[in-house]
Structure formats: C-alpha cells, structure tokens
Amino acid sequence: MVRVRAAPAETPTESASGLRAVRTQVGLSQEKLARVLCVNHATVSRWECGVRRPAHDLVPAVACALGVSEAQVEGWFGHAPVLRGDTIGRLPGLKRLLHD
After folding, report:
1. Please, are residues 92 and 58 in contact by the beta-carbon 8 Å criterion?
2. What is the DSSP string of 31-100?
3. pLDDT at residue 49 in the model
4. Which of 55, 50, 62 is nearest to 86 (CA)?
5. What does the alpha-carbon distance between residue 2 and residue 84 come to, in Å, rounded to a whole number?
6. 89: Cβ–Cβ under 8 A, 6 or more apart, which residues?
7. pTM exceeds cut of 0.85
8. Could you give the angle at which helices 12-25 and 59-66 cross, rounded to 10 degrees?
9. First to last CA, the chain
10. Confidence band (pLDDT; 50, 70, 90) for 77?
C-alpha cells in the first residue's frame, strides 16, 4: 500500500506574512499602519501573526494604505480563523475622535 502525502496547507502565519512583506516594502511600521487605519499596533501584529484577520470593513482601507487590491488582502487571510468580532462593523476614527 502506497501512502500519498497531502501537500501541507498554507498556514495563517505564511499567508499573513504577505501583509508584513508589503508593509515593510512600502516603508510602514506596524505603528504607522495602525495609525492610518485607526487601530492599535497590537492589532496589526495579530494580523501579521495570523491570529486575527482584519474586520471586513477595514479590508479596503488596508488595501489602500498598502497599495494592493482588496482581493490580495482577502487572500492573505483566507485561512485565518474568523473570530467573534472580526466581521462586526467598526467606526473608523471613533477612538481618535473621542480622544480629541
């Protein structure tokens, strides 16, 4: 009997590393990208580690900030688990507005 080994599936960390690669290529730190998107820098770190995915309504902003397509951003996180709150709409800039 011959065992056929399945090709390893792309892990969230491997796919989310595309975000890190593009972010550094365009010269943005996690902190700067977080400020542009009005999120915490720890949130960007979680995206890059494949632990979380950007909320659906943030995908266009991430794509715009990095100069890539929304489909490419979605592709980076296709294998990342959808956690409670990841798809809930957010009010971009609310934290900054309330802080001012």
Report:
1. yes
2. HHHHHHHTS-HHHHHHHHHTS----GGGHHHHHHHHT--HHHHHHHTTTSPP-TTSSS---TTHHHHHH-
3. 87
4. 55
5. 42
6. 55, 56, 57
7. no
8. 40
9. 69
10. confident
